[in-house]
Design goal:
The chain is α/β, with parallel strands linked by helices and about 200 residues long. About 30% of the residues lie in helices and about 15% in strands. The chain has one domain: Rossmann fold. It has helices spanning about 15-20, 60-70, 90-95, 125-130, 135-140, 155-160, 170-185, 185-195, and strands spanning about 10, 30-35, 50, 75-85, 145-155, 195-204. It has a four-stranded mixed β-sheet with strand order 3-4-6-5. The chain has a two-stranded parallel sheet with strand order 1-2. It is globular, with a radius of gyration of 17 Å.
Length: about 200
């Protein structure tokens, strides 16, 4: 994004991850340690908040959205890429993934524990709940955030990639072809079989 001319600030709660990022010459200047539940920036400081696999790890998604509303100006956007729990992806995430999945959780509940917790103490269902069956509750809680887009993507090419903790299960040419086929599937079908979701919110 810096190459496109944006001013970028990166935040990570882990000192180890921040140190690792700073060893990369291109990341040294703008990565800092902090919490997405208490973003260390002034009101209206950012035009975009961009998160990949962040929301379902946060102990209090409600606090994150409160902070996002604070640091975004009118017209600012939140862009998130997260796990999506579809009928097809559910058994994979539930039984073959390291992170917990609880579709009965309240995604807007406030976390009562301390700040420090294991990174895998997550709930992969949070994004699906917030922008699916609990969408009305989200919109009532955050009238300043308008849901602009919810896109379901990545079918079986997602688990075939091996994710972050495993190497690919298929040779690159075959996986690449499979992924391209995923992108050509109709959105109505992806709603039933996707593994990932893209969510775009706009600050009113």
């Amino acid at each position: 994004m810096r190459e496109l001319g944006f001013d970028v600030a990166g935040i990570d709660e882990s000192a180890g991850q921040v140190a690792a990022a700073r060893r990369h010459p291109a990341l040294t200047a703008f990565v800092s340690q902090g919490s997405m539940l208490a973003i260390p920036s002034a009101d209206g400081a950012y035009d975009f908040v961009y998160c990949v696999n962040v929301l379902h790890h946060l102990p209090s998604p409600r606090r994150f959205f409160e902070e996002a509303v604070r640091v975004l100006p009118r017209g600012g956007r939140i862009v998130m890429c997260e796990p999506y729990i579809s009928p097809v992806s559910y058994p994979v995430y539930k039984f073959l993934h390291d992170e917990p999945l609880d579709l009965g959780a309240d995604p807007l509940a406030l976390y009562a524990g301390g700040d420090a917790r294991d990174p895998f103490d997550a709930n992969q269902a949070i994004p699906t709940l917030l922008f699916g069956r609990r969408r009305a509750a989200f919109e009532a809680a955050f009238p300043a955030l308008s849901i602009q887009r919810v896109q379901y993507m990545s079918g079986f090419s997602c688990p075939a990639s091996g994710g972050f903790s495993h190497g690919p299960f298929l040779p690159w040419p075959i996986w690449s072809l499979w992924h391209r086929m995923d992108t050509m599937l109709p959105s109505a079908l992806m709603r039933w079989m996707a593994f990932r979701m893209l969510v775009v919110l706009e600050r009113a």
